[in-house]
Write a structure and sequence with these properties.
A 7-stranded parallel sheet has the order 3-2-1-4-5-6-7, sandwiched between helices. The chain has one domain: NAD(P)-binding Rossmann-like Domain (Rossmann fold), CATH 3.40.50.720. Helices cover about 40% and strands about 15% of the residues. The protein is an alpha/beta fold.
């Protein structure tokens, strides 16, 4: 993997940090994308370079802006002339619980453009680069049971976008398998705050042990290996069997007007 290039979107914090460390350990050259937090992303890039001795660059692009996304992908092609792995971990999320009728037009567009349309623009640019070397690995991030298109109370816009992304991921897996490209989605467990960037060693003695970012990163590490070519078109849960949707929102009533 020493000559391969990976793009991780939304790299300034959270799960993407764990993913970046795992790929850096594997010798990938990395492109770290950010929307606003340039300083934090550049600090991560510097730390990865010093620790693993790899090449890391940072590129700005808002996942809701197709012009910026296209520009970022063109910069990657100009710099490396290849892209082997795309981990699309960026995606806006509205923390306020509200009913469908309470979402504004802008909030709906934010969820759909940031979580679904962004993947279209990224895939459209990434796939030709992957085809050139007859190798590519596309990883998207979903939520618990997204492949079954479940309803998610008070999360209608986000859930609809991610369900669409699951279908898009599976479709790409079928369309591009003849070019050595796989596409899979992973779904996190109930993972929050600092646990997203944590390592397994930090929580191994906890009971029960929580899911941490490294748990997902280890799954990604397998999916991007050359030997994983037959593992494609899947939604892979890393949840420890927890009902994440039910645990987070079911039964929590939201009064008229939201909270």
């Amino acid at each position: 993997m020493m000559d391969k290039v990976a793009l991780i979107t939304g790299s300034s914090r959270g799960l993407a940090v764990a993913f970046a460390h795992e790929l850096a350990l594997g010798g990938f050259s990395l492109v770290l994308n950010y929307r606003h937090n340039q300083e934090r992303t550049e600090k991560l890039a510097e730390a990865l370079t010093q620790k693993y001795g790899i090449e890391v660059i940072t590129l700005q692009a808002d996942m809701q802006n197709p012009v910026q996304l296209n520009r970022m992908m063109e910069q990657i092609e100009s710099r490396f002339s290849r892209l082997d792995v795309l981990i699309h971990s960026a995606g806006p999320y509205i923390f306020e619980r509200k009913r469908l009728i309470e979402y504004t037009d802008e909030e709906w567009r934010q969820m759909v453009d940031g979580n679904l349309s962004s993947a279209f623009f990224l895939f459209r640019k990434a796939i030709p680069l992957m085809r050139k070397n007859h190798f590519g690995r596309i990883i998207t991030i979903g939520f618990d049971r997204v492949g079954d298109a479940p309803g998610w109370i008070y999360r209608s816009a986000y859930a609809a976008a991610k369900v669409g992304l699951a279908s898009l991921t599976k479709t790409v897996a079928i369309e591009e398998r003849e070019y050595g490209i796989t596409a899979n989605m992973i779904t996190p467990g109930d993972i929050r705050g600092a646990l997203k960037e944590a390592q397994i060693s930090e929580v191994k003695n906890a009971s029960p042990r929580p899911v941490v970012g490294e748990d997902l990163a280890k799954v990604i590490r397998f999916l991007i290996e050359g030997s994983s070519g037959f593992v494609t078109g899947n939604v892979i849960a890393v949840t420890d069997g927890t009902d994440v949707i039910g645990k987070s929102d079911v039964g929590k009533e939201v009064p008229k007007g939201g909270i």
